[in-house]
Design goal:
TIM Barrel; 3-stranded antiparallel β-sheet; 15 strands; binds magnesium ion
């Protein structure tokens, strides 16, 4: 069934009827392609899913920890989905849940990648941008911040400041770094721990200096602190007027205690899966800002559900997503519809060919990702770029 026949069936004069499974046969999924691209830090794993009518949808399944396992789980999900249509997102989720429970992150990312492809296919089939399927856009210009952490080689105040200045020149109004990466655990070598802490704070100060007082500074601690060191760090960072301090401690309870004692917005939750994990995180009052990642939190519909819970709790949503343009564009379609959306992550400077990976090129300008009116996500993979940077054997 093509789109014209679909619409005709749905609206046949005087005899409107529900579409049956048999009507949707052409919209069953048929084949999955996976492309693994080499980038500065690791790989980007992209999916292209074919419906039986020949249409294709794209998705980002990067950062699953083990690309081969992600592809294997994705193929299993597609096989289990053969007799279903591209609309059956909740069914896909139900099939994926046991895999996620048994195998964790690679299975969650496989689900996220496939689910994005299905939304792209749905939007194309219905002739509407995906944000229309999530309640309609409250905004089509999606604010993004430059995560300079992945691209900064020289991890000194000068190195981070240089990248931050580049991001500002590229039009970004908010910059994030994780200047404590590589430091020893709290309670190990005390002198080393203090040396790393001082270096990280110096990097944060240098970036504040480089971006000036009016742009936003975000610091990701990557859970390198315990309660005492985290509280001290947050207090020392207060004068830098952070937009947020992210993932301070491994313990959710410790982070909640720090949050209560400092005057800095706290963000977190990038590795959580599903409404259950986020419900517990909200209940623990561990953050002001939640950071679900559509690749690993259960997907785009899961992001919408998590955002609804957050809205009820008076919290903001800033999706995590330092991956490819495909993942950012997919997340942006949901962000467009969220009343409590704040800002979306963007991996600045990871590869020079980033914008060209999709056609038309990724529209990030003046710190915003601009969504248009094209059906689906509105973008296709640029196969010249995909082939040029594909990891051999994928
Ligand atoms: Mg983070």
């Amino acid at each position: 069934m093509n789109r014209r026949e679909f619409v005709a069936a749905a609206c046949s004069a005087g005899t409107q009827r529900a579409l049956h499974q048999s009507d949707l046969r052409g919209l069953a999924v048929e084949k999955l392609e996976a492309f693994c691209l080499s980038v500065r830090r690791g790989t980007w794993l992209l999916f292209r899913l074919y419906a039986r009518n020949g249409a294709t949808g794209i998705g980002d399944a990067s950062h699953g920890g083990d690309d081969r396992a992600v592809i294997e789980f994705a193929r299993r999900l597609v096989a289990a989905f053969q007799s279903r249509s591209i609309f059956e997102i909740e069914y896909l989720r139900q099939r994926a849940l046991p895999l996620v429970q048994n195998y964790g992150r690679p299975a969650a990312v496989a689900l996220g990648g496939i689910e994005q492809c299905l939304w792209d296919l749905q939007g194309q089939f219905l002739g509407v941008p995906v944000y229309q399927l999530f309640g309609g856009a409250l905004r089509k210009r999606i604010p993004v911040y430059a995560n300079i952490n992945r691209a900064t080689q020289l991890r000194t105040p000068e190195g981070f400041a240089r990248l931050a200045a580049e991001a500002v020149r590229a039009g970004f109004r908010a910059v994030k770094l994780a200047p404590f990466d590589g430091m020893p655990k709290p309670g190990s070598d005390r002198a080393e721990f203090e040396r790393w802490t001082e270096l990280g704070i110096a990097c944060a100060r240098a970036v504040r200096e480089a971006i000036g007082p009016t742009r936003e500074l975000l610091i990701d601690v990557h859970k390198h602190m315990d309660f005492e060191s985290g509280l001290r760090l947050a207090q020392r960072l207060e004068p830098l007027r952070l937009y947020w301090l992210e993932e301070i401690t491994p313990s959710v309870e410790d982070q909640a205690r720090i949050k209560r004692q400092v005057r800095i917005p706290v963000a977190g939750g990038e590795s959580l899966f599903g409404v259950g994990d986020f419900y517990r995180y909200i209940r623990a009052e561990a953050a002001h800002i939640l950071m679900p990642d559509i690749k690993s939190c259960g997907g785009m519909l899961e992001l919408k559900k998590i955002a609804a819970m957050a809205e009820g709790a008076g919290l903001l949503i800033s999706p995590h997503g330092p991956a490819s343009p495909v993942g950012n564009i997919a997340a942006a379609h949901v962000c467009a519809t969220l009343p409590n959306f704040q800002i979306l992550e963007y991996a600045f400077g990871e590869v020079p060919w980033r914008a060209e990976l999709v056609e038309p090129p990724e529209p990030v300008m003046d710190g915003e990702l601009v969504l248009g009116e094209r059906p689906g996500f509105g973008f296709r993979l640029n196969m010249d770029i995909v082939r040029r940077y594909a990891v051999a054997g994928t």
